[in-house]
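Re: your question about Na+/H+-dicarboxylate symporter

S., sorry for the slow reply, the queue was backed up all week. Below is exactly what I fed in.
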Amino acid sequence: MLRRYLGQIAIRSTDAYLSLRMTSLSPASSSTSRIPEIRVPGALTLTGLICGLVLGLLLAGKPQAQPALAIAAPVGSLWLQGLQMTILPLVAGLLFSGIVETVAAAKAGLMARRTLGIIVGFLAFSAILGAVAMPLLLDLFPAPAGVSFAQGVTPGKVPGLSDFLASLLPYNVVSAAAASAMLPVIVFVGLFAFASTRLRDEPRKLLALLFEGLAGAMMVVIGWVLKLAPIGVFALGLSLGVRSGGAALGALAHYIVLVVTVGTVVMIAGYAIAVIAGRRSLSAFFKAMLPAQVVAVSTQSSLATLPTMLAASRRLGVATTTAEFALPLAVTLFRATGPAMNMGVAIYAAKLAGVELSAGALAAGAFVAFATTFGAVSLPGTISFVSSIGPIAATMGVPLGPLGVLVAVEVVPDLMRTLGNVTMDVAVSTAVDAGMKTEEAPEETLH
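Result:
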């Protein structure tokens, strides 16, 4: 009954935020989302970036450049500060809700625990992959020289390995939050969320509603800020064009290629999981995934692709009960490409800002990339870009300036995110199915 109910939720819901409420999966508690719908002016934002870069290129080296910078730089910096002020409370609300939902799902039985085990394990791998792959790619294919960003928002200290270990737990969570120390705050919120699942129903639900309300209110605020994205990104693009010239265009193209490459590695890992853990042939998985991947590219939504993912699982011989449980759960909680590509973006932003990342900074970033994935929701790429990558950058001491420009071209990497996530979701369903069949296989009787 529970498996069929979860399948119906994911297929029928038109809301982008599927929620396994609190520690109860009752229909009354998960029928509608309280997270407000946010619309992002993506096309206008991209247009603003292009216009800003072109105008900056035209003004570069001319007397009019300095007066233009005197106006554009404060405007861009103010817009970035508007984004930065929402990150900590938004991440706290989303992370708390995501952990509570994950714990609730884990109580649904053996299949749920098996599915979540694969999900959690791969998310950890994805975070490490991003921390390793992007620096390697940047060594092999260096970013174009001559790109210069103004430090509009002051970066924090780049942590070393000892700093990372020492900062895992805050002495005072209030002072840590006031100092925008992301890592200890995230650890505290995570522990607080796990602790809340041990409470009686009434206080547990009150806490869950409180943090859900916090996340919802911050979504509204960030929606207001992002409505001004065309102006803010125009100002940042103009500043970048004046300071960097044509190198800025090369850097954006280079960034897209490298981040998409990291996402492609994650997608390829999905094929490996289907073959090794799911025990399906490579050709069968490739053929079954093609229709779902076409839908994923055209809709840029894992949720909208769910019906074709279910059809792909049936073609691969996945049991109906397994597919109807594992796929909705994966669509709700699993962002396979998230940690790797988010780390890739933050590392590239560090390169553009001239910040040298230590092993400790990369370790801290990977931990935050892994943890904040559980608070990721099916939102427009621009919003999840800010809520997911902002904490990673802040933890590693990377300024937000480059992110304000990179967010405008997120539409292309976002295609790869959806493609990789959809491929991995179906791969997980094959692995869960193979594991369940092994569990259910009768033991041989020796005579």
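DSSP finds 19 helices and no strands in the chain. The longest helix spans residues 65-106.

Happy to talk it through on Thursday.
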